[in-house]
Write a structure and sequence with these properties.
Order of helices and strands: HEHEHEHEEHHHEHEHHEHEHEH
Strand order of the largest sheet: 2-1-3-4-5
Number of domains: 2
Strand content: 5-15%
Helix content: 40-55%
Distance between the termini: 22 Å
Largest sheet: 5 strands, parallel
CATH class of the largest domain: Alpha Beta
Number of helices: 13
Radius of gyration: 22 Å
């Protein structure tokens, strides 16, 4: 039985890990995945219908602050929230849509001082402070931001200026929704830089020809004198983006493909490895690095009310001293290979996240993991890239899209379901 795209590359003395019974029957897994996708679809439809207009107005407010020289400060303290903090910062500073400007953003997680102190020392009157998570420390930090004149945003009831409260219930679904929300804010805040006459203090009044971008953002062709019309179009675009991620999840894991079966096989491999004393090692670049951090947090501190055991997991993106030393002395392509050489043991599992499926550091890491006897799981986008076409991982799950924010959101659903299936 073939259970993973990389099965041909396993050594002869070792069989591919295809015991489906470890996570239930194939039909049971498909039923679970179908139910989880439906759950997410329902939550997204209702939440974005209610929050699309506030999201649009927040995009406008953020654009005005950025236009005045303000920055975005993302803040959070829990392990999961820290991954979102870093994700927000990298998305705004390093835009993945060609032609969009880099916007100043900083992540504060209480490393150098208590979080409220970090905020008080860093924040300015034109800044935006975005709180990730619901920890009590965030309320104190938000109060410090208010005192400095900053505008505040939160996804929980923390007395922020803008509260886009994520639904209670499944913490994985809530976090995925928050990720989509801040991706949408990043994508659509740029609209108002194409309508600079609509920003406070600007007097420019011109019409903008969106050209080739019109099919993605039709409102870019609007004139600059009708804020309400642009806001309505931005709100409509937010709803469309929520619909797009639901469709991509279905394309990744739905009944029309083999994604759910591949996920079940990956979970069986990982569960067997952890049960035998192995560990999970996770890695990625950029936004995918923050997702690797999230994966490790989910395994080490499971959010299931204590029902799931903590599992040993290592984040290979976490230590900036190690990463920069290797990149400086050897080359950026070796940042993960050297760590796998140091930490990887036969019986461990490597999880690679890559939107392109072709990142050199990820490809080389998978090759090194196979040399050392590690099993491997890869979550990739586009058409699978080199990792998919070369069967470089034992299990490859492809989110078939070229839009990086949607790929990352679909991958978050995949690794959250992977975490659940490991315990079933």
């Amino acid at each position: 039985m073939r259970c993973g795209p990389g099965w041909r590359s396993w050594p002869r003395a070792r069989s591919p890990p295809c015991e489906m019974s470890a996570v239930g029957s194939a039909q049971a897994v498909r039923d679970l995945v179908t139910a989880r996708l439906a759950q997410r679809r329902d939550v997204y439809e209702s939440w974005f219908a209610a929050q699309a207009e506030p999201l649009a107005r927040l995009c406008h407010a953020m654009a005005e602050r950025f236009a005045r020289g303000g920055r975005l400060l993302a803040i959070g303290v829990s392990p999961t929230a820290r991954s979102d903090v870093r994700h927000v910062a990298v998305e705004f500073v390093h835009p993945v849509i060609v032609g969009k400007r880099a916007l100043p953003a900083l992540g504060l997680v209480g490393d150098s001082a208590p979080l409220a102190t970090e905020v008080r020392l860093a924040v300015g009157a034109d800044d935006i402070v975005m709180a990730l998570g619901d920890d009590p420390d965030l309320s104190v930090a938000i109060a410090a931001a208010h005192a400095a004149g900053a505008v505040t945003v939160a996804f929980a009831p923390l007395r922020a200026d803008w509260e886009l409260v994520a639904p209670a219930g499944d913490p994985f679904v809530a976090q995925e929704l928050v990720e989509t929300a801040y991706h949408v804010l990043w994508e659509l805040v740029h609209v108002f830089f194409e309508h600079r006459g609509l920003l406070d203090g600007r007097t420019e009044r011109r019409a903008h020809d969106a050209g080739a971008a019109s099919f993605l953002y039709p409102f870019l062709a609007d004139s600059e004198h009708d804020l309400d019309a642009v806001l309505a179009d931005v709100a409509g675009s937010a709803i469309l983006k929520a619909r797009e991620i639901c469709e991509l999840r279905e394309a990744t894991l739905g009944s029309g493909g083999d994604g759910a079966q591949e996920l079940a096989a990956a979970a069986a491999t990982l569960r067997g490895a952890l049960g035998a004393g192995g560990r999970l090692l996770a890695l990625g670049n950029g936004g995918s690095a923050t997702d690797a951090t999230d994966v490790v947090a989910d395994f080490a501190m499971p959010p299931a009310g204590g029902a799931w055991p903590a599992r040993p997991a290592l984040d290979l993106t976490a230590d900036s001293a190690i990463l920069t030393a290797i990149a400086n002395d050897i080359g950026v392509e070796a940042i993960f290979v050297r760590q796998i050489i140091a930490h990887g043991r036969a019986g461990d599992v490597l999880l690679v996240l890559s939107t392109s499926g072709s990142s050199v550091s990820a490809v080389d890491a998978l090759a090194q993991a196979r040399r050392q006897g590690l099993s491997s799981i890869a979550l990739v986008g586009y058409d699978g890239g080199q990792i998919g076409s070369g069967e470089l991982a034992d299990h490859v799950i492809v989110a078939p899209s070229q839009h990086i924010p949607r790929i990352q959101e679909a991958q978050a659903t995949v690794y959250h379901l992977l975490r659940e299936l490991v315990e079933r």
